[in-house]
Structures are given as C-alpha cells and as structure tokens.
Design goal:
- This protein has 371 residues and is an alpha/beta fold.
- It has 13 helices and twelve strands.
Length: 371
C-alpha cells in the first residue's frame, strides 16, 4: 500500500514525538513492503512566526490532498496575551478541523498492565478498564458565536448543536459499540441544557436501529466521578465537544501518563491522528518527552487503512518497550532513555524483534542504554 501522509509537527515537543511515529511507520513500510510518503507543513505558533497565520493556505491544501495527517501539538505561552484570538496557535487546529470537516474525535482509554501502579488510582479500580470516548469536535461552544463587550467585562460563548451534527457521530459510536461490549453511555447535562436534551432525543431515536446495544445516560458531573471510581463500567462514551475535552483528559490518570494516549479525528473524507497531550514547551528539545502516544497514533493510522497485522506489530513493539522499561522519565524517573531512544527501540523491534541493538540483560536491571 502507498499512503501520502501530511506531517504537522507543530510546536513544543510536537516535532520530537512525531519523529518517533515516522520512524515506526518507516519500519512497518520496510517489513511489510508499504510506501509511506511524508510531507511536512507548518501549523500553530511556528506557522504564525513564519507566515503570520496559525493555519497557512499551503498547509490546508496539503491536508485536503493527502490520505492521512499526523499531528503533533500546538501552543506557545507567549501568545496567551495576544488580543487577536485569530493569531493564537490553537486556532490552527480548530480551523483545520472545520476546513476538513472533522467531527469525531476517538480516544481509547486502556491502561498497560506493566504500568498499573503508576496511576494515582488503585490497581483494583483500573485493572481491566477498557473504553473509548467519542467526542464531537465540530460544534458546541468551541465553534459557535462568541461575544465580548467593548470594556472586556462581559463575554459569552454560544453552545449550539444541530441534529445532523449529533446523528453522524452517534452512528459511529453505536457501530463501534456493536464490535465491543455492546454498551454506549451518552454523557450530557440534560437536567439543565437544551443542547443536552437535543442530544438525548436524537441518540434515543438512533438507538432504535441498534437493538443489540444497551444505551444509558449519565450527567457529566456524575460521569466525571464514575470515570475515577469505576472506569470498568464503561465501553463506549459519547459526548459533546466541551465535555469530551475535559473527560478524556481526566481519563488519562487511569493510564498513569497523558503521554500514552492517542486519538483519531474523523471526517467524511479526512482523518487526523494526534496525541492528546499538549505542546509542553518546558520539555522542548530536552529529549524527555514521551513518544508513545504519537507512536500509537501511527498504529491507529495503520488500523484505519485496514493494515491490522501491521498495526498489531506497532502495539507489540510498544508493549515490549514498556515491559523492558525502555521508557521516558514520566514513566520511570530513573530511566536513562529519552524520546529518541524509545523511538529507536520501538522501530528496531518492528524491523526485527530478534535482533535488538541494546543490551537486553542490563535493561532488566535498569542499567542499559541504547548502543
């Protein structure tokens, strides 16, 4: 298979972690005879600095004419005080989502067995947890009308949803639930919000076409609590933009590090893969950022295009790195491995798991470095 992949590394640690995902895909291409053509483009703060806009036309045109997009991270604190919100780095991502028609952000939450003790939650609570959050990303308060008065003393963000916006992501979520444990939880605030009441109405109607899937409703405040005290009860969570943003980051504590969680954003003809962590500028160019989320994004990309064996090979390599403690310091404060070394190990394992170029005996006692 030949795939053209747009690479939008962005800001902060974005370029470092996305490089490791590219290494993994290159290794897959060698082993399985696929060709992945990468083309880099600017987005976020680096794009503002070089072009004056967070989403250059050249970047958008590339993304509109590519098979998939690998996205790193955007943001830079120096733009926090910029009065013109159109120049803020995050606008690059938001505008890209709109332009590509991306509407469903899919975030799998499943802890690694070898990392269960890293979570602040008790092992008995998180062991066996395995669910997916479907977050709508094209509507709600992030994209609706925004106002602020001349004095800057009164502001509003309209939260607005249409039936069509709810319908299209709901079908995706229900079809996914059919392939899993056949349970879907709609998270909303229907006790107060009209938009949430519309979500309940539409999703209830759609559920009639999926009689094999159990549908339940959960208010967002209760959902925030249940994700922490009993995450194993969930299978597929469906929710709107703002709630999904908050809950998916909260759920990262289950895995022990936000640096482990990937996501996919789907549209009718475009697909974008990104780690859910931010740009973390304080870690920039220090070779300490966890690349696993970005590498798992590569696995999700492969799976999206039906390359299931190849995808499993990437997951296997990630699991082996974790098993052998070839991880960054956020997972093991005594680790001698950095971003590049973890990426090298994983790509090398994909190339040949029986010909690893590190001293395996010493890795088990935490003394080895890549050689």
């Amino acid at each position: 298979m030949n795939l053209k992949i747009a690479v939008l590394s962005g800001d902060g640690i974005g370029p470092e972690v996305i490089l490791q995902a590219k290494k993994a895909l290159y290794a897959v291409g060698v082993v399985f005879d696929h060709e992945f053509v990468f083309e880099d483009a600017l987005i976020g703060a680096i794009a503002v600095e070089k072009t004056g806009t967070p989403l250059p036309e050249q970047t958008l045109n590339l993304c509109l004419n590519t098979d998939a997009i690998l996205f790193g991270a955007v943001d830079d604190s120096k733009y926090d005080a910029v009065s013109d919100s159109k120049l803020r780095p995050i606008q690059g991502l938001l505008k890209l989502r709109q332009a590509l028609g991306l509407y469903a952000n899919i975030r799998p939450i499943k802890p690694y067995n070898d990392l269960l003790d890293l979570s602040p939650l008790k092992r008995k609570i998180i062991e066996g947890a395995d669910f997916i959050i479907f977050r709508e990303i094209s509507g709600g308060s992030y994209f609706s009308e925004k106002k602020i008065n001349e004095k800057g003393t009164l502001a509003s963000d309209l939260c607005e949803y249409s039936e069509e916006e709810i319908i299209r992501i709901s079908h995706l979520a229900f079809r996914t639930a059919q392939k899993r444990k056949k349970k879907l939880t709609l998270v909303d605030k229907a006790s107060i919000l009209e938009t949430s009441r519309l979500w309940r109405k539409v999703v209830t109607e759609i559920a009639e076409g999926y009689p094999d899937v159990t549908l339940e409703f959960l208010l967002v405040d209760n959902a925030a609590m249940q994700i922490i005290i009993n995450p194993k009860q969930f299978d597929v969570i469906l929710t709107e933009n703002l709630f999904g943003d908050i809950l998916s980051d909260e759920a990262s504590v289950i895995t022990g590090s936000i640096g482990l969680l990937p996501s996919a954003s789907l549209g009718n003809s475009s697909v974008l893969f990104e780690p859910i962590h931010g740009s973390c500028p304080e870690a920039k160019r220090k070779n300490i950022a966890n690349p696993i989320a970005s590498i798992v994004c590569a696995a999700m990309l492969l799976e999206h295009f039906g390359l299931h064996i190849e995808s499993q090979k990437v997951y296997e390599a990630v699991h082996k790195a974790i098993e052998l403690n070839v991880v960054t310091a956020d997972l093991n404060p005594y680790s001698k491995f950095g971003t590049n070394e973890v990426g090298d190990f994983i790509s090398n394992y994909i190339l040949s798991k029986d010909d690893l170029y590190f001293k395996s005996d010493n890795v088990y006692i935490g003394q080895s470095t890549i050689v």
